[in-house]
From TrEMBL:
SUPFAM superfamilies: Sigma2 domain of RNA polymerase sigma factors. It comes from Fulvivirga imtechensis AK7. Residues 24-88 form the RNA polymerase sigma-70 region domain. Keywords: Sigma factor, Transcription, Transcription regulation. The keyword Transcription applies. PANTHER family: RNA POLYMERASE ECF-TYPE SIGMA FACTO, RNA POLYMERASE SIGMA FACTOR. This is RNA polymerase ECF-type sigma factor, putative. Gene3D superfamilies: 1.10.1740.10. GO terms for biological process: DNA-templated transcription initiation. Signal peptide: none annotated. GO terms for molecular function: sigma factor activity. InterPro entries: RNA_pol_sigma-70-like, RNA_pol_sigma-70_dom, RNA_pol_sigma70_r2, RNA_pol_sigma_r2. It holds the Pfam family Sigma70_r2. The keyword Transcription applies.
Amino acid sequence: MKNNIDFELVKASLSGDKDALNTLVEKYNGYVFNICLKTLYSHKDAQDVSQEIWIKIITRLDTFQFKSAFSTWLYKIAVNHMLDMSKKSVEQAISKGFAGYKDNLEGIANETLTVEEEAILKEALEEAKISCMSGMLMCLDREQRLIYVLGDIFKIDHKLGSEIFAMSPVNYRQKLSRARKELFNFMNNQCSLVNRENPCTCSKKTKGFIKRGYVNPDKLIFNRSFKEKIYHHQLVHQSDELDRIKEDYHTQLFRQHPFEETAHKNLLEEILIRPEIKNILKLD
């Protein structure tokens, strides 16, 4: 049923139906943006790259063969675009590997918050947690990040994952397992969210994050107003029951991050002013 609806929307879009195209964009834009955000860390980079991806999707809409789910075709374009593009400046600055990330965290002094400060900085503390965890993802290489973001955080199954990444299911599972192992090993030894005995606690690092400019209590980036969290928006129902049962606590923490739905409200209007888009979609 979902495929039939998407197919009709694609056909209508190619016939010049702007409302149908807008429905497609609104349906998938939240996923595209949030995948970009988890992969690139920077809100601005995620907006820019998601727009680039949508331009590719729309300019190639007439090449869609209606042989697979539209969503699979869309995510393949998104993944390939992010794998092929050069490193963004924020990504380059942050992605120093787990050893470098550990050194950076240890260089931030621990400062215990008073009860009053905890109340005042409640939202900033949550921002520090999400920011730090998002930074951990940047320690993986970009392919690992994408595989982990799609496979564990957004819960695509192994068959679909292998199709999107154009690799065998065995290879996909191995790469996902390797990404998990590297990320979870770091968290197991460093992060107090996973092990309370670990030295790095969000509350004690919040002041340091603020002083270094990683967190601005007056201008939150990751913990802004939102309606739902990522776990409300997994891409497909997991076919592997065992995976659902034994989901790692590490992954649960990432899936509790905000899912931003309102990114780039004027995205379609900005794209439709391009002459090449008007020609493809037969728009006046």
